[in-house]
Design a protein that fits this description.
heterodimer; A: 134 residues; OB fold (Dihydrolipoamide Acetyltransferase, E2P); three-stranded antiparallel sheet; B: 357 residues; Peroxisomal Thiolase, Chain A, domain 1; 2 domains; 13 helices
């Protein structure tokens, strides 16, 4: 992802900021200008709480440029408790402990770095819920 | 107003200030000290002062770790992110040489834009330096809340004795008005001198040390100097404290300095984390304070004394209030992070930590 695009998307990358429809209450991620449910154009920024569950996943043993240091790692589809589904890297988990339906929480991690002299990109990943009740 | 002459030694803000929220962070991974010493020195035993140390995952650094610790601190305080007017991160392992850690932490927590943000560096003292600065900002009335973080992912040169202890972790403290505090600052004192005990030149990946300077002229002189001056200025003795935390480069030094100052083993037990996770550098004494706050009772008095090479110590005295019981439940405890552990072997550790180039 380009430097400019990553910078533009930092609200959603860092804080999982989506939108909530003022008319029907539906929550979207990534943020939308138009509600897919009721076609309303009045939506407000809505930071999601970052709790969800694992719908499916795949393990990567070969990584695109900038992700080499992290292989092997898993990428999952996460369904958030507030509704939206998204694709995210999974972390803080042993790959053989991954289970469809497991409860996940958002954490901010290094996503990739451009060599030794480029920018480091940070953003959301998901991990198993670490501390129940906290 | 003769405060400047009356108690020249004591540092105290004009307005009452205290910790209104705190949060710990320790990565999930550990490596046993013997796994490191076996690679470099053969399988000999007895040498390692620390059983295991914490290791950051391949996608963690001071920025990501600071974000989680600070999020825990905010959650404990109940303060809205936009009311925080400074984010100061003390570390010797900031991911960038130029580009502040503080802005990324502020942005991720929703604190940006109307805030100060900067990185502090003073070896292992950078975290308490941030606490002093945040206290001053709130105590002068310039800001309602200021965030101070001490966090490190410390590295030792492969094969150096430091590699067995250089660890990852730290804590964040949100400073605010005294009447909202879970721990009220009663007084502080800072003590520095030009001492060549330990350094890292710009552009060098690993530090160097001046062996004969590391003990007495550095660690002990500064911690004892700061602690004695502060207790003297406040008219306190070790028996007035329920707990004390001293910087923890290993398991031995904090025990010895506590004894020299007149503190018992029981007084330092709760804040002594080095045997479990190693030396978290700028995060070391702050993390010890977080664990003590996890267990503290209203009325407890706590002494924390950092030490940073180069060299200096900050000593701070906190008085725990009855707001502690509510606050501590709202975020994971230091023990939660201590109990979460997955051991890795030296090969994994070396790859993650960039020791193979
Ligand atoms: Zn709608």
């Amino acid at each position: 992802m380009s430097l400019a695009r990553h910078w533009r998307l930092r609200d959603q990358r860092y804080r999982l900021e989506g939108t909530a429809c003022d008319d029907c209450g539906t929550i979207q991620f990534p943020p939308r200008p138009l509600c897919p449910n009721c076609r309303s154009r009045t939506l407000s920024p809505h930071p999601l709480d970052g709790r969800g569950q694992l719908i499916s996943y795949t393990v990567l043993y070969q990584a695109p440029a900038g992700f080499e240091a992290q292989i092997p790692y898993a990428v999952g589809i996460v369904e958030l408790g507030e509704g939206p589904r998204l694709t995210a890297m999974l972390t803080d988990v042993d790959l053989d402990a991954l289970q469809i339906g497991m409860s996940l929480e958002m954490t901010i991690r290094k996503l990739r770095s451009d060599g030794d002299d480029g920018v480091i990109q940070y953003g959301y990943k998901f991990r198993p819920v670490q501390f129940e009740g906290a | 107003m003769n405060r400047a002459t009356a108690d020249v030694a004591l540092m105290r803000p004009e307005l009452p200030v205290g910790i209104v929220g705190y949060g710990a962070y320790i990565p999930r991974y550990r490596i046993r000290a013997e796994a490191i010493s076996r690679v470099w020195h053969g399988d000999q035993d007895g040498g390692a002062p620390i059983a295991q140390k914490s290791v950051p995952g391949p996608d963690e650094d001071v920025i990501t770790m600071s974000i989680e610790a600070a999020a825990n601190a905010l959650r404990r305080s109940g303060v809205a992110a936009r009311d925080v007017r400074a984010v100061w991160v003390g570390s010797e392992s900031h991911p960038y040489a130029v580009k502040p850690t503080g802005t990324i932490v502020a942005e991720a927590l929703g604190i940006a834009n109307a805030t100060l943000a900067a990185d502090l560096e003073f070896a292992c003292k950078a975290g308490t330096e941030a606490m002093q600065a945040a206290t001053a900002l709130v105590g002068s009335g310039m800001a309602p809340y200021a965030l101070a973080i001490g966090m490190d992912t410390a590295q030792g040169r492969p094969g150096d004795a430091l590699e067995q202890s250089a660890a990852a972790g730290g804590a964040a403290f949100l400073m605010g008005a005294g009447d909202e505090a879970i721990a009220l600052l009663e007084g502080a004192y800072s003590f520095v001198s030009d001492t060549p005990d330990f350094w890292r030149r710009a552009d060098q990946p690993y530090p160097s040390h001046g062996h004969r300077f590391t003990g007495e002229p550095a660690y002990f002189t500064h911690i004892i100097g700061a602690a004695r001056a502060l207790m003297g200025a406040m008219g306190l003795t070790p028996s007035d404290f329920s707990a004390a935390i001293f910087h923890q480069p290993n398991s031995k030094y904090p025990r010895r300095v506590a004894k020299q100052l007149g503190f018992t083993a029981a007084q330092i037990a709760e804040g002594l984390l080095a045997p479990e996770i190693g030396n978290c550098y700028a995060g070391s004494s702050p993390l010890g304070l977080a664990r003590v706050l996890d267990k503290a009772q209203p009325g407890d008095r706590i002494l924390i004394v950092s030490f940073g090479s180069g060299a200096g110590s900050d000593a701070l005295v906190y008085h725990v209030t009855d707001r502690i019981d509510d606050a501590r439940r709202r975020a994971p405890s230091t023990d939660d992070y201590l109990a979460r552990k997955q051991f890795v072997d030296y090969a994994t550790y070396a790859r993650w930590r960039g020791k193979i180039r």
